[in-house]
Each structure stands twice: as structure tokens, then as C-alpha cells.
């Protein structure tokens, strides 16, 4: 569910017309619904209300400080994958003891910064990382609370570039080495073993891969306890998908309540704190990207809508061949005949294509369109390729809206660079 709907023939975010925002802010821009963010967080968290649970929002999915602050007020922790994301989470008021640090390439400086703040745990992904973290912890006269991320060798059935739980993926410690690495961790004075971590991928719309991976992980917890390790936490990552193609029942993910029922059945007997790292599930349908049509171009065999948004603003279609529903801001007449368009951006790359042969109502230059389900991995992956300014982000809450990241001017972009005196 989201809070974007037509009212008086114009698309609104909650009680604010997107036409008004486009007039005031300019296009393209991202728009997020506060009501949708709150609702999605609550639906997920409430599904585990009877468990000892930490819901650590995946900051990489949408890292704007205003969004993090909103979720912090709902009770969310944070899953971070860099020192920068750690700083964001802390600035947004998320307590350090509700922060989990994931990622395969943590540096010594990032480890030291996280240790100083007293984060909940590090999710350690390799033996070299474990040894470095031990050294850093000892140098600071402390110990690091950790869970080892174990790769369960379970294919999630999603796009190859967002699958993380197979043996050939770069993430985690191989399943066959799990006991050996836990024994190593137990011998290190700067390491405090707390739990087991597993994460098999993103945009998963079937419970079967989760169940297979989580059953294997529950068996591992029992084995590790038999080996003498005090396993009190189970981090099951994120990955629960969202509907990108609305109306397609095949892509509809399971409800969080069904996800929770499956996990409670598997993990309930273990008596552990459950840690989750949802991102897309909370933010995906809470955001959209609004763009204006620059040209309606007739090609030899296709009709192109050339937009003022480009692949640098929303890279998912170019990177993942991802689908985003596209709708006009002005509500089309019912039963209106559709036209087949290729939606493209102005960047000089053939890959700067959002959709091919998309069936839409007749559209003209100057019309506004919205890319739905753009809240996750949209603005966070944007760049300034072609010296195009980063897209502004707007948060709507009821009848109020605010720009929560401004569009930089060209002068501000250029001011970040300098020319050596010797040139």
C-alpha cells in the first residue's frame, strides 16, 4: 500500500498535488510519503511484537537524514555498510546500541569509529576482517560484539546482481568453514561472539528460499552451542521484496505477517534476539520520481518520450533491467487508447532507457510522469554524470512538504573541484 493517488484528476502524495511540488521545486525530483514509510515500518515491526527483536533499517536503501529521523521516531535501528552511513544514523538520533555494521570491506578507521560509539554488533564477513577487527578492538582496550555472516549457499531466485547467498557470491563465510571460523573467533581476546548472521539477497518474493536458508541457519546455531559458543542473536538480514509491476500477481511478495509466522516457527525454539535489516520493503513503494517530458520524438519504427530525468537519477533500469510502473501526473480518461513509447533520458548512452514499448496514454511535451516504487535504491544511487545536478528529495507528511535534499547549482558542483597552480 502507498499514499499516492489521483484526486481531482491530478496525482497527489498524501494531501499534496505533485503538480504543485513540480512547480515549486522543478523537475526531476524524488517524493516520499511519510505516511507510507510509517505504515510499512509498523506492519513489519508489529509482525514481531511478541519477540525480542531489533529492526535495523537498511540505510543503503534510502539514507536521507529526514527519512532516518522519521524511522528513528518509530523505533527503528540501523543497518549500515560504511562509516558515512554510521555517521548518518547517529546524526538522525538512532542509538548506537541499535546499529548493526555490515559489509565486506570495513576499514580499520570505520571499525574504530564504530567501536567508539558502542554499536550493537559487527556482521563479520571473512577471516581477514575478523583478525583486523580483533586487532583494532585490542588497540582500543575493548572487545567487538560480532555475528559471523555465514553463506548458506541458497539461491534466492532474484536478479544475479542482487543475489548474495550463493557459494559463488562475495558475501559471507563459506558454510563448510563456519564451525572452524567460530572456533577461531572464540580464541581472539578482542572478539565477543554474540550471534549468527545470514542474508541471501534482495527483492525476494517467495518464502521458500528464506525457509531453506533459515532452517540451515537454525541447525548451525544448535551445532555452535554444542561447540560451546554462546549464541544469543540471530540476524536474518532483509530481502523481502515489493511489488514493482502492480497488477502482476506473480511478483506480489508475501505479507510480513506470513514471513514472521515462518520465522517464529523456525527460530522460536532457539530463544535468541531476532535482528532484521529491512530496506526496500519499507521504502520502495513510499517514493516516486517525477519527471517532465522534454520531447515527443518520432523515430523510424518507435516513438520516444525524452525526459528530463536520466540514468544518473534512476539507474535501476540500466543496471538491473528493472521495471518501474510509469503513470502520468494528470489522470487519463478512462478507456483512453494507449500509445507505445520508449521512455529515455537525455544522457548520451543507449543504456539511458527507462522502458521500451511501454503502453501509456497519449503524452505531449511538458507533461509530467511519475516512476512508481522508486523510494528504494533511487536517490541513493544517483550521480552527477554529465554534470547533471543530484535530484532533489521531497518529503510529504499530510498537507505539508519540505525539500529534504536540495538540487545543487552548477556553481556548487564546480566548487568541489580545483585546478592546480601549475596548470
General form:
globular
Strand content: 15-25%
Oligomeric state = single chain
Domains, number: 2
What can you tell me about this protein's structure?
The protein has helices spanning 18-25, 34-46, 65-74, 83-91, 108-117, 127-139, 178-186, 207-226, 256-267, 280-283, 316-320, 410-414, and strands spanning 4-7, 10-13, 16-17, 29-33, 53-58, 77-80, 99-101, 121-124, 144-151, 173-174, 191-197, 233-235, 273-276, 287-298, 303-307, 326-328, 339-344, 353-360, 368-371, 393-397, 400-405. It has two domains: 4-31 and 285-414, Lyase, Ornithine Decarboxylase, Chain A, domain 1 (Beta Barrel), CATH 2.40.37; 34-282, TIM Barrel (Alpha-Beta Barrel), CATH 3.20.20. Strands 4, 14, 15, 16, 17, 18, 19, 20 and 21 form a nine-stranded mixed sheet that branches. Strands 5-6-7-8-9-11-12-13 form an eight-stranded parallel β-barrel. It has a three-stranded antiparallel sheet with strand order 1-2-3. It is 28% helix and 25% strand.
Amino acid at each position: 500500500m502507498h499514499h499516492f493517488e489521483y484526486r481531482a484528476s491530478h496525482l497527489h502524495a498524501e494531501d499534496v498535488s505533485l503538480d504543485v511540488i513540480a512547480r515549486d521545486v522543478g523537475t526531476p525530483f524524488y517524493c516520499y510519503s511519510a505516511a507510507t514509510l510509517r505504515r510499512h515500518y509498523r506492519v513489519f515491526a508489529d509482525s514481531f511484537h511478541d519477540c525480542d527483536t531489533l529492526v535495523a533499517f537498511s540505510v543503503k536503501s534510502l539514507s536521507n537524514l529526514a527519512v532516518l529521523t522519521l524511522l528513528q521516531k518509530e523505533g527503528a535501528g540501523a543497518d549500515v555498510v560504511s562509516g558515512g552511513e554510521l555517521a548518518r544514523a547517529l546524526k538522525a538520533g538512532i542509538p548506537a546500541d541499535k546499529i548493526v555494521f555490515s559489509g565486506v570491506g570495513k576499514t580499520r578507521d570505520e571499525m574504530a569509529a564504530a567501536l567508539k560509539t558502542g554499536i550493537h554488533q559487527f556482521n563479520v564477513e571473512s577471516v581477514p576482517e575478523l583478525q583486523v577487527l580483533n586487532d583494532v578492538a585490542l588497540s582500543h582496550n575493548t572487545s567487538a560484539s560480532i555475528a559471523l555472516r555465514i553463506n548458506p549457499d541458497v539461491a534466492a531466485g532474484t536478479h544475479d546482481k542482487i543475489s548474495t547467498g550463493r557459494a559463488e557470491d562475495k558475501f559471507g563465510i563459506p558454510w563448510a568453514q563456519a564451525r572452524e571460523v567460530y572456533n577461531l573467533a572464540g580464541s581472539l581476546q578482542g572478539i565477543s561472539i554474540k550471534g549468527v548472521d545470514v542474508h541471501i539477497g534482495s527483492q525476494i518474493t517467495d518464502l521458500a528460499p528464506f525457509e531453506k536458508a533459515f532452517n540451515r541457519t537454525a541447525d548451525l546455531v544448535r551445532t555452535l552451542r554444542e561447540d560451546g559458543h554462546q549464541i544469543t542473536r540471530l540476524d536474518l538480514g532483509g530481502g523481502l521484496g515489493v511489488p514493482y509491476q502492480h497488477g502482476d500477481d506473480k511478483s506480489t511478495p508475501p505479507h510480513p505477517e506470513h514471513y514472521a509466522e515462518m520465522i517464529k516457527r523456525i527460530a522460536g525454539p532457539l530463544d535468541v534476539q531476532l535482528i532484521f535489516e529491512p530496506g526496500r520493503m519499507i521504502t520502495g513503494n513510499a517514493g516516486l520520481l517525477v519527471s517532465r517530458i522534454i520531447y515527443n520524438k518520432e523515430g523510424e519504427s518507435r516513438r520516444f518520450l525524452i525526459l528530463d530525468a536520466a540514468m544518473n537519477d534512476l539507474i535501476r533500469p540500466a543496471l538491473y533491467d528493472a521495471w518501474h510502473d510509469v503513470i502520468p501526473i494528470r489522470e487519463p480518461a478512462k478507456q483512453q487508447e494507449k500509445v507505445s513509447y520508449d521512455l529515455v533520458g537525455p544522457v548520451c548512452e543507449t543504456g539511458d532507457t527507462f522502458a521500451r514499448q511501454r503502453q501509456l496514454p497519449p503524452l505531449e511535451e511538458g507533461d509530467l510522469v511519475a516512476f512508481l516504487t522508486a523510494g528504494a535504491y533511487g536517490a541513493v544511487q544517483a550521480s552527477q554524470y554529465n554534470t547533471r545536478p543530484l535530484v532533489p528529495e521531497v518529503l510529504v507528511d499530510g498537507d505539508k512538504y519540505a525539500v529534504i535534499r536540495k538540487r545543487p547549482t552548477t556553481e556548487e558542483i564546480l566548487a568541489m573541484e580545483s585546478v592546480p597552480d601549475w596548470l
